Amino acid sequence: MNPLQERAALMSRRHFFGRTATGIGTAALASLFARDGFAASPMKRSGGLPSLPHFAPKAKRVIYLFQNGAPTHVDLFDYKPELTKRKGEQIPDGVVKGARFSTMTSGQTVRPCLPEITKFKQHGQSGAWVSDFLPHTASIADELCFVKSMHTTQVNHAPAITFFLTGSEMPGRPSMGAWLTYGLGSETEDLPGFVVMTSRDKEASCGQIFYDFYWASGFLPTRFQGVKFRGTGDPVLYLSNPDGMSRESRRAVLDDLAKMNEIGLNEFGDPEIATRIAQYEMAYRMQMSVPELTDFRKEPKDVLESYGPDVRRPGSFAYNCLMARRLVERGTRFVQLFHAGWDQHRNLNTQLKVQCADTDAPSAALVKDLKRLGLLDDTLVIWGGEFGRTPFLQGNIQDVKSWGRDHHPYVFTIWMAGGGIRKGTTYGASDEFGFGPVKDPVHVHDFQATVLHLLGIDHKRLTFKFQGRDYRLTDVHGDLVKGVMA
To answer: How far apart are CA 55 and CA 184, in angstroms?
Structure first.
């Protein structure tokens, strides 16, 4: 929506509420602002643009399992016998072709081929190649679409992650979850439409930072930014009332705050004031919804066990995966999980197995759990990082304990499952070294356009005017990857 149109809508509502503020409840006022004044769809959508979806969606919601640090495709999904055949040999210059790498290997002149550090097997009717480090993921191979031709332009973590999630390597643009809640709203009024959770490897082996701009709303109104659930204490700050304050007292305080904010809204028509009203009300409702959300006692024992031994430990990847399923089950539109620890520059032989053990069972259990509940058909699950890892060794091949792989943006693998995805398939391919795409390359903007399409959105038509320009998630790029869609 054009910000001027949004302001006009707010100003017209201002006169209505100015005349009738005495007779309308504050909670109802906040609810109306949270909905942007638009009528809900038959699925009881809260908020969103009236023109969306542009066409019938295949998916209604997204769970993005973002693997910070970049999983190594040639050790997990992209089996390359040529690397074994040429172990220790210099990777051909004709393959590298002057490619840019991080400062950790940019000056390294010896680049020996390094084969997978584990074993690969084919799984399911699809015959997908999956590492032995990921037995649970292998068990759902026929539910997955492996995209083995992903490529990006960024060679360092923060800009690469920002590019994947916002369409720009520079902070400041809205994240994918913000775009979706802005355009499609949410299916719940008792929980945020966009939730973020973070976790990291138990050994804290890498220093990946979770920047707030990974889930920010950018130039969109701030009510569309992701709400971060914490791994310790209350999931959300200030969820519990202070000592001595009852729920009734808090309601009275919020009513008075809403009246004061209404005065400011009447005066200025500032959408951020409407955001404040809506968010105070959301926080109040979450006092009732979040305790039920985080209570796992009614979960079947076998379901809990499928997520692994860490499922009851708040802040773990397993706990966050189960929380993600419970959130989408209750109407949250977009859940974004971050798990750091994949940045294996000098500890590939030790840390990769640990990282896989932490994430394998929870990721597979999430897909199985969604299918068990009949939610997988319209829930899009995405698993992947910001780039891949080099097929050549970072370091000295004689020093086995310090083997590692550097950042590799030129080709890597992600997988997708659920809403609208062609399951049991592999899309695209890399060359015999796993260095670059040779079939059906998929750029980051192509991936973003496809995700939006699966949710019923034409990526060229979901725009927001800012500083005189119409912006969109895919910038001015992006083609649909039809081969991954059912």
So the answer is: 12
Q: Count other C-beta atoms under 10 Å from residue 5's C-beta.
A: 10
Joined tokens for residue 318:
């397993």
Q: Are 221 and 272 in contact (CB under 8 A)?
A: yes
Instruction: Name the fold adopted by 58-235+294-484.
Output: Alkaline Phosphatase, subunit A (3.40.720)
Residue 37's SS3 state is coil
| E strand or H helix that includes residue 194 | strand 194-200
Dihedral-angle region of residue 331 (phi above 0 means left; psi in -120 to 50 means alpha; beta otherwise): left
Domain ranges of the chain: 1-34+245-292, 58-235+294-484
Contact yes or no for 76/134 (Cβ under 8 A): yes
Least Cα distance to 395 among 407, 411, 406, 410 occurs for 406
Kindly give the residue spans of alpha helices, DSSP state H, lying in 269-400: 271-293, 301-306, 317-329, 348-372
pLDDT in tens, the chain (486 residues): 555 555 555 544 444 444 344 333 444 444 444 444 333 334 478 889 999 999 999 999 999 999 999 999 999 999 999 999 999 999 999 999 989 999 999 889 899 999 999 999 999 999 999 999 999 999 999 999 999 999 999 999 999 999 999 999 999 999 999 999 999 999 999 999 999 999 998 777 766 789 999 999 999 999 999 999 988 877 877 677 777 777 777 677 767 776 787 777 777 667 677 767 666 677 767 888 888 999 999 999 999 999 999 999 999 999 999 999 999 999 999 999 999 999 999 999 999 999 999 999 999 999 999 999 999 999 999 999 999 999 999 999 999 999 999 999 999 999 999 999 999 999 999 999 999 999 999 999 999 999 999 999 999 999 999 999 999 999 999 999 999 999
